[in-house]
User: Fold this.
Amino acid sequence: MKNLKVGIVMGSDSDLEIMTEAAKILEEFNVHYEMTVASAHRSPDLVHKYTTSAKSRGLKIIIAGAGGAAHLAGVITSLTTLPIIGVPIKSKYLKGLDSLFSTVQMPPGVPVATVGINAGKNAGLLALQILATGDKNLEKKLVAYKNKMSSEVKAKGEKLLKVGYKKYLSAQESLENK
Ligand code: RP5
Assistant:
């Protein structure tokens, strides 16, 4: 059986594209996860069952994404002492502001670590950083990841200094048109 560490839950399969970004970064670091749909409003019994059995499946962290009146991460947090990361999903009418506020504005005593709107990748990375506090090997990989990001930014800056913005932009455009 897999050594499960992270649960990824979403309110609807319409959230899947964004939540997949969390799954992809966990895969990059070889951290096992499970992924499912459970809705705080449409299937509250399922959310209860999923959360109260999470520790027995080995989960250390749950990432919960929902849009609109996004109560999933908060409800999950109310049922467990595991750290919960909330992903506000961009919504149809209010562009995700409703999701952001309903995920982040939790009452004292029930904290949800909320990432940005549609920030599935950052949710995955935050889960990895939390897990790395007790895993030296994972910590090393995260340091390498950050070093790589930093080198990429430096290379971009050096290139811009060297060639100027016109050549830089036309190189970007020709890459995009390939
Ligand atoms: C929320 O309502 C879900 O998380 C989703 O973001 C939104 C819309 O759900 P569907 O109508 O697409 O199932 O509960």
Notes: The mean pLDDT is 97. The longest strand covers residues 4-10.
